[in-house]
Amino acid sequence: MNIQRFLGATALVGVLSAMPAVAHGQAAKRITDTDQTTSAQAAGLDQPTNTANADGSDNNGEIIVTGSRIRNPRYTGADPVTVLTRDDATANGFSTTTDLLQSNAVTNGTSQINNAYGGYVTNGGPGANTLSLRGFGTSRTLILLNGRRLAPSGSRGAVGSADLNSLPNAMVDRVEVLNSGASSIYGSDAVAGVINVITRRKVHGIELNGEVNVPQVGAGTQKRISMLFGASGDRFTIDGSLEYYKRDALAYGDRDFLQCAQGLRLDGKGGGMGSGDFIDPATGKAKCYGLSNGTGDQGVTINTIGLPNVNGTAVVLAPGVPVGYGALPTSAGFGSAAQQVCNRFRPNPAVTTGAYRGFECVGGGALTTDIRDTFPKTLLNQALISPTENYNGFLSGTYKLHALGDAEIYSELLVSRRKSSQLGNRQFTIDYNQGSLLLPTNLRGLNFGACSSNFPTCIPGTPIAVRVFANYGNYNNYQTSDFVKFSGGIRGNLFGGFRYDAYASKSWSDAKYTTDLILTSRLAQSLDVVASGSGFACRNAIGGCVAAPVFSNAIIGGDFSGAQSWFNYVVAPVTGNTKFRETTFSLNVDGPLFKLPGGTAQIALGAERRTQSIDDTPSTESQNNNLYGFTSSTATRGSDAVSEVFGEIQLPILHDQIIHDLTISGSGRYTHYRSYGGNTTYKFGGTLAPTTWLLFRGSYGTSFRAPQLFEQYLGSTSGFQSALGDPCNALTAASSPVRIANCAKEGIGLGFNQTSSIQVNQRGGAQSGLQPEKSNSLNLGGVLSPRFGNVELSFSADYFDMKLRNGVSQLAYSTILQQCYDDPQFRANGVCSLVTRSSAGALTVVTGYVNISTSKLRGIDYNARIALPVGPGKLALNAQVTQYLQRYNQQLPTDSITELTGLYTGNAYPRFTGVFDGTYTLKRLSVHYSMEWTQHLDSNAYFGGGPTYNFRVPDYFLHTLSGTYRADRFALTMGVRNLFDTDPPQMSSGAFNRIGNSPLYSGYDFAGRSFFVNVSTKF
After folding, report:
1. Span 846-860, pLDDT tens digits
2. Helix (H) or strand (E) holding 737
3. Predicted structure pTM score
4. Which of 20, 307, 506, 923 is most buried, judged by most C-beta within 10 A?
């Protein structure tokens, strides 16, 4: 057993055997500082500076627990609430609130969109960081700032969630996490739960803070500097912060485990991972993929050309036998009797015979194509962790009027700017038309494929002679995202102990996004040439056209240095703009109703009006479908408005009478959307405490989510998928009889070979009558918290059960085709209306957001804590474990239910995750150790790993060690994150997006061992 596993196991056994507990589920106690503390407080660290309510008020010890609007000095909520402080973030080396929120302590090991997703299409656009509680989706997790909604922000058309980059990190005092549906309290989006980020209050003087986090590899450094300030008087308070954060890029080339992406296949004979990969005869080693292979089997070919079979006749090659196309290497990947068809070649001057002299075969047809690629150095430049610069400012204030019920005016201003970028690498496909003067004469008459709309640079009616698969090299995406939220209100006293709170806010999000792209029209214009002097010129020279380069080995190899003016002509920065607006008005009234044996019944009533609008305007080139190799999109524009009335009641039935406490509560909300109409949600729950050290709690409620604006009004986008996805492609007599019959109805018989890519057009759901989602959740749990002198001990277990119905989902094009062509009713099936086939057999599929999916989630949260004196100091141990019992996502009612727990499917669904930590405090010094654990993920059985693939990854442990010294006006924290420099685990290619050889999963640390220092001082 290696030292990492030994220490990890020791920590796990030691912590659990001592029954320690984190402050999970008892936020009320945490905030009032009466009968619960957080791990930081129990360890003797500084007490929180914020004793205000979640909405920013301060009411003589009365508090509002996240998940309730009732103010009460002793109410413990019916739902568990996790509390994380700024001290927790500092001790664990989290440079931002984003890092804290996306850690296992909040996400329970589920996948999150972080800065490793720069090259992927994500909601909110590249550079945005979002949160999905329990993996239920970002649009089903509500983010609050001081008890109020944080509006969505980001770039591109799919803006629907708050960007965590906009949070004021320096001002965050604590984060409260409610892992339970709360639509009856907060309205739409609070399906999976609520994140309430609470800022500090009553900062006195000036505080300066600086933090640096440096990975051992020397790249990807994070720096954050901030200034906090505050002043207060008899009638006013002012608090604010200014902050600058910068994260440098961490490139593929900076990490050893990313130097060579491989298939990591098995040989089926007991060999390990990679034993089934192609071994390059030149090096004796497995071949590195030339481009990120994603979910594909062989990677994306580069530095090669596509050529037709000679005279349209297949040329069959035996392994190792040169037959004009060049030598086909013999390897373990090819059976000795294998015969392959070639249509991919790369330059090789040693080949002097055959139809394609100077080129050797490297794949095509059934040939294993791992050997296609050449590995360009530009691949290692692309960003593993993308860079960003964030600027944040926050200002809050209150002023007492001594009028209108001793009213207080309050306001907040949040301003942020994110400047982010993502360096990627891509292929450049160049189609030389039949007869092109840019080709050598022996290649001009070839016919690689017919010109169609799928090949927009070819000349209509003229076949493609040669296709070049070159390495484009590095390209950049960059965004500037500005977010402003201004809010304010007035709160005061009414008659009979009632209070009022009138609130208004306005949020603005403006983003500009730019990508370096190839323009289809310019590329096509440059490839249509005529002779001009000793060279060539564009047939149509309008717009400063530069003729494409002559076909050459340099061009095949991605070397455009000799054709830079042409490259600069066909490539241009393409810019779009996104605007999102949100306006909110609300009025809340709360107070006592009547006396009960356990205390005074409390009620809260309110109304809210909220409007939203989105306006995403892609570049003109995108709207005109003029982006070569990239999806096009049109404008996304729409708005909606919601009016709501809500109420909540709390009934303290008993208190220190027969039993210690019995309290029940209920809440309800009526919501009316302009686009959907009305809907009612409710929730009821309660707590039962037979004694002071034993508490039972539970709740049941319904939630509701109106589709996001982008889900309704997403502008039409188009893209292309592999021709192999056509259900009528390569049918044989052994194929499904239903599918054979349906294809025959369209004039397609057995043996049909689809040569055109499938065009996929996406659209918003408003056109198809999209409706809201509905869900229900059940939570049952208990807390055991006896006290033994100076020993604090607690243990809690909470069962959760959530089910989502009528879920908004985007139908996959493959699902639409399968449902259509495998249905005996065929075109009578409604889903077939989304499929059209041209007279030439080409497919077009329209997909959008529809109400089809059902999701189910059950599990148990375990939390344990012990704090006790040890020697001259104090030791606090904490454990937080989540066990998932069931999880499935059923996209269509006809789909079979597949258990996802324990699988990696592109998203991670671990069966167990845990966070364990311990802190020892001695006067001004404290030492902190933590371990994050994600149980193994095994998708071999589900995805048919069999003898060829390994889709299983082992348990993953991440260790952090830090120390803190605190003086009266000074604090210093130093530590190491990923103490043992653990690389992410590896799995075979063939089913999932990978980074190098590792699954793309936010639960893994891609940066490696990092050293961090945090310094703060007060004036």
Report:
1. 888 888 788 999 999
2. helix 737-744
3. 0.88
4. 20
